[in-house]
Structure formats: structure tokens, C-alpha cells
Amino acid sequence: MSGFKPFLAADETGIAHFRRNNGDGTTSYLAVQDNDPILDANKAMATHNDGYSSTRELRRVASIPMQLLYHWMQTEGWDPFDPANQHKLAQKLNSNEFEYLRTAPGHLGMSNGVMR
């Protein structure tokens, strides 16, 4: 983070923002998030129970750090918040590569346009 100075303090997402004057009339911005607390909580929740609420109406699935969501938007070109991309999000969350994001056991799938 050479030359970067605090710009905005970390908020409730844990993301801190920094900026740097590049000396050529441009400015660079950097966002940093400590993902360890999120991933530690995910690991604990994954073995806590089956993920369902007491009424079994809701099910906990995953907790994804904001920086990873931004990464997918910027580098892969898809918006994980867009309902049209539910298939892509389910694919990511079902993969072994991203199992550390899951907070309950099971397999995500699509049925009648709804992630289940």
C-alpha cells in the first residue's frame, strides 16, 4: 500500500478506503477488507445446525465478503445481486473453491426461477 493514505474509515462491512495522489494529476483508490472474521464465522456456522430458522421458513446459505462480490463484478463482469445471475451465484457457492463462503450444508439449485 505504498503511498496510500486513509480516506474513509472501515464501516459496518469492514471495508476501509485509501487514496494516493500519483503525482501525475491522477488519484488511485484502494479498498481493503479483513475477511478473516467473516470466514471464521462462516466456518462456525457451517457446522452449527442445518441452517434453517426455528419455523423452517428461512434457510441460511452463505456469507460473502463485499470485496469478493466487487471482485466478481469487476473481473468476471457479472453482478451477484442481479436475479438474472442466480445460476452463476449458485454455481460458485456449490463449488469446492468457494465452500468457505457457505454457512450451512446442502446443495443450491434453481427451481421455477428461484434459488433453493
Instruction: Figure out the total of helices.
Output: 3
DSSP strand content: 15-25%
Poorly predicted tracts of residues: none
Main sheet attributes: strand count, strand direction, barrel closure: 3 strands, antiparallel
- Mean of residue pLDDT values: 89
Estimate nothing, just give the exact number of structural domains.
2
Per the principal axes of the C-alpha atoms, what is the gross shape?
A: elongated
What is the N-to-C succession of helices and strands?
Answer: EEEHHHEE
Oligomer: single chain
The total beta strand count reads 5
Describe the overall structure:
The chain has 116 residues and is an alpha+beta fold. It folds into two domains: 33 residues, no CATH class; 75 residues, no CATH class. 27% of the residues lie in helices and 19% in strands. The protein is built from three helices and five strands; from the N terminus they run βββαααββ. A three-stranded antiparallel sheet has the order 1-2-3, with no helix packed on it. Strand 1 and strand 2 form a beta hairpin. The chain is elongated. The protein starts with a strand and ends with a strand. The mean pLDDT is 89.
Output the keywords:
single chain, 116 residues, alpha+beta, 2 domains, 3-stranded antiparallel sheet, two-stranded antiparallel sheet, 3 helices
Topology at a glance:
Layout: E1 5-8, E2 15-21, E3 27-33, H1 36-46, H2 66-76, H3 86-94, E4 110-111, E5 114-115
Antiparallel strand pairs: 1-2, 2-3, 4-5
